[in-house]
Specification:
- The protein has about 150 residues and is mostly helical.
- About 75% of the residues lie in helices and about 0% in strands.
- The chain starts with a helix and ends in a 5-residue tail after the last helix.
Length: about 150
């Protein structure tokens, strides 16, 4: 990745980081795009080059969470000396810890995004892929006689 792309990525990440911090501290409805851009040190036009709205910040965080979940599932599909049940328990514990680590943001993602319900387009495709990965893990457990 070139320097220009790295700078764009850092700006995007900073917009998300500061937005989430302000959402936690002030509340989502009380945080304005102007508050975000002032803290990041960019113009409103720059913000809107990256995100069409502050709601899109939450969607980006929710998508990152969904990608993390899918990565955990892919990792757990690789057979190990741990049972499928133990791997499923591990995924559940890790996801719960992740969501509890920032309860305010997790609450916003659950209530104001399509993280768990109603996704469309590419997000729906990603959700179906994660469901397939989970199904494969259950199939491993069934094949091994661990799960009925």
């Amino acid at each position: 990745m070139g320097r220009r792309e790295e700078k764009k990525q850092r700006t995007r990440e900073r917009l998300i980081e500061i937005s989430l911090e302000l959402f936690r501290r002030r509340g989502f409805d009380e945080t304005r795009v102007q508050d975000i851009v002032e803290r990041v040190g960019v113009s409103a036009a720059t913000f809107f080059n990256y995100f069409p709205s502050k709601e899109a910040i939450l969607e980006a965080q929710a998508e990152q969470t969904a990608d993390l979940y899918a990565a955990m599932l892919r990792h757990q599909l690789v057979p190990t000396d741990r049972s499928v049940v133990e791997r499923l328990e591990g995924i559940t514990r890790l996801l719960a810890r992740y969501l509890q680590s920032d309860r305010a943001t997790s609450r916003l993602m659950v209530t104001r995004t399509q993280l768990f319900f109603g996704s469309t387009g590419d997000k729906a495709d990603k959700d179906r892929n994660a469901q397939r990965l989970l199904a494969q893990l259950f199939e491993q457990g069934q094949a091994g006689g661990e799960i009925d």
